[in-house]
Amino acid sequence: MRYRSMFLAILSGILLIFIFPTVLFGYHFPDLGILAWIALVPLFLAIKNKSPKNAFGLGLLAGLVSFSIILYWIRILSPLIGLLILAFYLALYIALFCFLFNLCLRFTVYGLRFIVAPCLWVALEYLRSIFLSGFPWALLGHSQYLNIPLIQISEFTGAYGVSFLIVLVNATIAYRIGEVQSPKSKVRKILPIAIVAIIVGACFTYGKLMLRASHLTPRTSELKVGIVQGNVDLEEKWSEILHEKVLDTHIRLTEEVAKEEPELIVWSETATASCLKHEEGDLAKLSNLAKKLKSHLLIGSLDLATQGDYYNSAFLISPQGNIAYQYNKVHLVPFGEVIPLRRQIPLLARLVEGMGGGGFRAGEELTIFDIDGKRFGVLICYEGLFDNLVRKFVKKGADFMINITNDAWYERTSAPYQHFSFSIFRAIENRVPIVRAANTGVSGFIDSYGRIRKDLDIFIEGTLVDKISLKKQETFYTRFGNLFAYLCLGLSGLLLIGALIKKKRH
After folding, report:
1. Does 179 have pLDDT greater than 90?
2. Nearest to residue 230, comparing CAs of 402, 408, 415?
């Protein structure tokens, strides 16, 4: 019985791997997001009738299996121990979910049992997205990034609402399998399934109606944007000898894309690999380029901060040749650009600095760029993961968002595709188009309904041009943020308190 439970937990771990974009051994697996709707069923069956302690262990096992492969690309950026530590940390959330689920289930009235699992899961996903600066990579809802009708509910709930539905369906299927031999009435067996089917069906139908209506919504204004994907190898990017070659590659591609007369041309994160404001030669070249093409250039570069640190920045060069705006990245990558707890754990700081981590200073302001009244914010690399950060930009006046990144670090792995997929949710949550310029891909255009209009695959040198439609509308999510996640967190707390009180009485 013990080995059966372990097998089921491992099976869930394996299924959870393939619900996200997956590249293993050089093979790009087809999208298998549909597996998310059954991926947790084996785990639910494994922990059934187990003590909370044993459920914790089985959840930890499933989490270790899944996250060790979902995030295998971390090994490229840090030693194997870095991957194992991160996988273990994230697995703890699944383990804690199993522990709390079994604890609450024992002392929860029948009518509330079907919301215990999705509420707990969402609550823990939300905590993962904010704790220790947050790591909301591969939330369960992200697996449905191509299920465009269903994920339209993100304008109310964020990606957490999609996670809620997936766990609700998994829990219901597991319940039906577990109760198949039960003598309970047919109504009691079928009713939960019918209710869940109605809920999921209603969400899907809402999405279909929204997508249909999107073609009828008048466009308030448009902006023609070009993307440059330089496809520059990391060694070349940071080589002083090859600096001019890299810059010339971007200039050549920019002149090519300028033939279609975009108003804005976007380069990737640290495209110049220099401190642009302090590199007179680079700045002069780009200023002359902007004047020649009569277009705005958005350039990813570095800037000097105090005490020898740097800002990871984005600069907007106007057609007049001057720097019109600058944004300094505010949410840095922990252990990559900044070292959390460096004062509290000096040994950790020295270890990470020895691996090349740290050295960056966080920006303090969310800069809104403006091109003739068309306003946008810039997300640099990792910042595209954070729903609330995008929401703040939109509330401040951004009509669309640009994500610049250098995903060359990830090589030919799952990471560039996973990273791109998260942007689809940022678009829907706030109903803003997303423009994504990546050094080695994936670059592309995503409309405000999460539809991929155009994209460039990884490790391809090329350009893209599209007209993005700007619409002035404030979504429920833009206005209230992660209210749905807060409700799940609060309800989970009440269920847990109730379970503990009943346990004490028993």
Report:
1. no
2. 408
